[in-house]
Specification:
Blueprint: H1 2-103, H2 107-134, H3 136-142, H4 150-162, H5 164-179, H6 183-205, H7 211-235, H8 250-324, H9 327-363, H10 369-382, H11 386-401, H12 406-418, H13 420-470
Helix pairs in contact: 1-2, 1-4, 1-5, 1-6, 1-7, 1-8, 1-9, 2-4, 2-5, 3-4, 4-7, 5-6, 5-7, 6-7, 8-9, 8-10, 8-11, 8-12, 8-13, 9-10, 9-11, 10-13, 11-12, 11-13, 12-13
Amino acid sequence: METFFSAMQTFGRRQMIRIYREEFSVKNDKNCLKDFIRYSSLNVLGMLGLSCYILADTFFISKALGANGLTALNLAIPVYSFIHGSGLMIGIGGGIKYAISKSQENKKAANQAFTTAFLLTALVSSFFFLTGIAGSGRLTGILGADAAVFDMTKTYLRVILLFAPMFMMNNLLLAFVRNDGAPQRSMAAMLIGSFSNIVLDYVFMFPLNMGILGAVLATGLAPVISMLVLSPYFFKGQNQFALKKCPVTRHLCLMILSGGLPSLITEVSSGIVIILFNLLILGLEGNVGVAAYGVIANLSLVVISIYTGIAQGIQPLLSQNYGAGNTSNMRSVLRYALITMAAISISVYAFVYLGAEPITAVFNSEQNPLLQEIAVPGLRIYFTGCLFAGFNIILCAYFTSMEFALPAHIISFLRGFIVLIPMAFLLSAIGKIVGIWCTFPATELLVAVIGGICFFLFAKKQKNRGADSSS
């Protein structure tokens, strides 16, 4: 009888623990959802505004300079992707280290992460700056600009490279402010900087008639304005990170660069796609074909920025929960991110498929029938890859946020280089221009399958580890 009562007491305690855990899990899940909505929505808005840098240039250049202007812009865009991606690599990689150290209440390590990231930003941006001074002409030739667009392309490249320190420092500060618990401040800075770019684009290109120089100058001033918006956060002492005299170790530098590498590859792969497609399309359809691809590429950058916004939004939440050892919250955040991404992807594709003709017409100021003929089917084929691209970007953020970068590196290199480049040559040889449009969705689909396998293997490993520790 005593054994029976003892068993009943044990059963009762277990039931109470189970009920408590269920109630706690529901409450915790609601908090996760609230935080996810707050961080991801603010970062998506901010990244959408940031992507308007190039989209505004595309619209105003198409109106002021026609197809040649679009070609010059599209030839120069990859360099912007390298600059922006480098800033994201250091900013997000440093932000991950900062968020984990902060959640573990290690202030010294948190400040060391910021100081190291700041010095890395200064070093890398100086390389771009010096390239703008001494190598913009040669770089213009390498990118394939012919005599008709050479001068415009060179002007755009030189100015964008000279403003590289501003772009990269802005990315660094935005990432750390976001990880410091102020995503609304980060979003406001990105949006105000982007809207100022649009206004300055119009002023410089039309009333002042500055041409391509006006477009790129407006783009270069946008991160300066963004940092001015961030400045009160520091002047009022709201920041919990600061530059401190500390050792800059090789290990920490590599950890920062490794954590942010997928962000760099995501941006650089966009640039690689544009460079490769430009060269292939030039051989098939000439400058008009490149201009048509410019419409597709710039809209693609906007959509990718949405996924990047979700990924950047969940990164602080994932890193903080990883530092605190809360794996349940991490899974909830990932689930919300994937559901949101899928809903956005379906909506975007429906919009692009139904509106391909008017979308192209907006950027086709000369009403060139060949440009319209090339771009419309291109939009409908190219954007079928959005769902898979979004999955790959978010999965990379999930892995890097817990300092488990290897699967993220695999996914990033596959979609940016290893699968993409052979796929482009193969499909363009088989299907000409249609094959080029199919390269993006085919690459992202194949990599998404590989990424899904990596995730399930990782989840199985974590589950087995948890079972071993509990026993």
